[in-house]
Amino acid sequence: MDLESLVEPVVRASGLELVEASFQRGPGRAILRVFVDREGGIDLEATAKAAERISRRLDLEGFDPGPYTLEVSSPGVERPLRRPEDFARRVGEKVKVKTARPVEGTRSITGTIVGTGPQEVRIATEAGERTVSFDDITVARTVFEWGAVPKAKTKGGKG
C-alpha cells in the first residue's frame, strides 16, 4: 500500500482533503510531509488532530522507514494541482504549469484556467489559449498574485 493510500482515508475521516503526501530522506533526517486542506481553509486545531490520527494510522499499519518527522500542514497560498478535479475546482484562477514536452514551443505555461475536459486543461495566456494534456503535466500549482491594496480615502479627497 502506498503512502497516500494509507493517509487519505484518515484525512477524509477528519473532514479534510489530502492535497499531497511525500516521504523524503535527507542528510541526517527523514520527513513525511502531508498537505491537507478544506473549503474555506484549515486551522491549527484541525491540522493537529489530523497529524495525531495520521500518526496513529501509520503506527497501526507498521509504517517504519526508520526515524522520521511527520509534518502536517496547509498547502499554502500556491497550491499544487495534481488531479483533473484539482484543475476543475480552480477554473478562473491563475496557474503555472510545467510540461514534459513543449506545448506550442514552451514547457512552462502561466495563465488562467478557462476550462477542463476529461483529458486536458485549457489555459488563457498572454500568447493565447493553450490546451495541455493532463498526461503531459509534470508540475502545476496555483499562482498567488500580490496586489496593491487601495488606500482609504480621507475627507477632503486626499489619500
Give a written overview of the molecule.
The chain is an alpha+beta fold and 159 residues long. The chain folds into 2 domains: 3-73, RimP-like superfamily, N-terminal (GMP Synthetase, Chain A, domain 3), CATH 3.30.300.70; 84-142, SH3 type barrels (Roll), CATH 2.30.30. Helices cover 22% and strands 40% of the residues. It is built from 3 helices and 8 strands. The protein has helices spanning 3-13, 44-61, 84-89; strands at residues 17-26, 29-37, 69-73, 94-103, 106-116, 120-125, 128-133, 137-142. The strands form 2 sheets. The chain has a 5-stranded antiparallel β-sheet with strand order 7-6-5-4-8. Strand 4 (94-103) and strand 5 (106-116) form a beta hairpin. The radius of gyration is 20 Å and the shape is elongated. The mean pLDDT is 87.
Fraction of residues in helices? 10-25%
What is the end-to-end distance? 60 Å
Number of domains: 2
The protein's oligomeric status is: single chain
Global geometry = elongated
What structural class do the secondary elements suggest? alpha+beta
Question: Overall mean pLDDT score?
Answer: 87
Biggest sheet, spatial arrangement of strands: 7-6-5-4-8
Q: What is the CATH H-level superfamily of the largest domain? A: RimP-like superfamily, N-terminal
The CATH architecture name of the largest domain reads 2-Layer Sandwich
Estimated radius of gyration? 20 Å
Strand content: 35-45%
Counted by DSSP, the helix tally is 3
Helix-strand pattern? HEEHEHEEEEE
CATH topology of the largest domain: GMP Synthetase, Chain A, domain 3
Number of strands: 8
CATH class of the largest domain: Alpha Beta
Largest sheet: 5 strands, antiparallel
Contiguous runs where pLDDT drops below 50 for at least 5 residues: none
